[in-house]
Design a protein that fits this description.
By secondary structure, this protein is α+β, with helices and mostly antiparallel strands. Helix content is about 40%, strand content about 15%. Strand 4 and strand 5 form a beta hairpin.
Amino acid sequence: MNEDWFPVTYSTLDSSALANRLLPQYGIWEVASCQFWNRGLSDVYVVETSTHRYILRVSHHHWRSQGDIEFELELLDFLQQHHLPIASPLRTTDGQLFITIAAPEGKRYAALFMYAPGEVALGDLNPGQSWLMGETLAKIHQTALNFSTCADRQPLDSDYLLGRSLRTIAPLLKHRPKDLDYLKEAIANIEMHLADFPKKPPFWSICWGDPHSGNAHFTPDGQIALFDFDQCGYGWRAFDLGKFLQVALRGGVPKTAREAFFSGYQSVQVLTEWEWNALQLFTQMAHIWVWAISIDTAVVHNWCRLDEHYFTQRLEQLKRLTSRDWQLF
């Protein structure tokens, strides 16, 4: 590294350089535009040629390892081969699913996808769209039971989703000891009740990790395409359902649409009574995990939003999810 460079936490890669130096490795030469589109857990660029539209996703250095990237892209390639409606990655001219970029802060990984047909649901999911998403998620869980890879990916188990999350959140709640104690008790309760939950098929499969309306496109003729699998991993299928509920309840998705999601899911795979009874716990688990992720990414986005109101809001949401009427909010 050049000794004159100042250390970098996050860099924004130049769109023109990506178009001229990276996209030709996919055999794409006549790029009409390459625009920085969104900064989320990864950086997203929209690429257009005269005939096609693509999504170029570049991981953040601090967010995911090479093993995480390999796991996700191999999974998506596998699901595409089994004709599931997901935005699958394209291969480079030499057959690779991603390209390593030497960014100032360290290695980052770029992957190119065909643009998913359709649009995000207007105003959020209606019952028909929600049913279709549930059905598709069940097919992913079912199909992924046959997926295998050598890629190293941390499973979405209690230690990762809760233990690691507590280690992230706790230092920022030290000055609020009662709230910290409440969070610890809530996590201990989830861990106790899920301690004997089976880690074997069909309960344990591949989780999408982030099933919600913002990660799906719908076409006018009723087709669906799912994307954004960067939180995927081996885990309990019921966790994916809890994650859907966590986002749906926070976003105010109507009860009819939430029920349609589960009807669609169970048209493919019937949930056991054990899983139904654990849904509230998995929804709490999803909330805590998302909370920790938002703190992890604040170093890139805006640390200033981690004020007292932010933590009060997250704690109040957790209390709602632990209440008897948790699905009424």
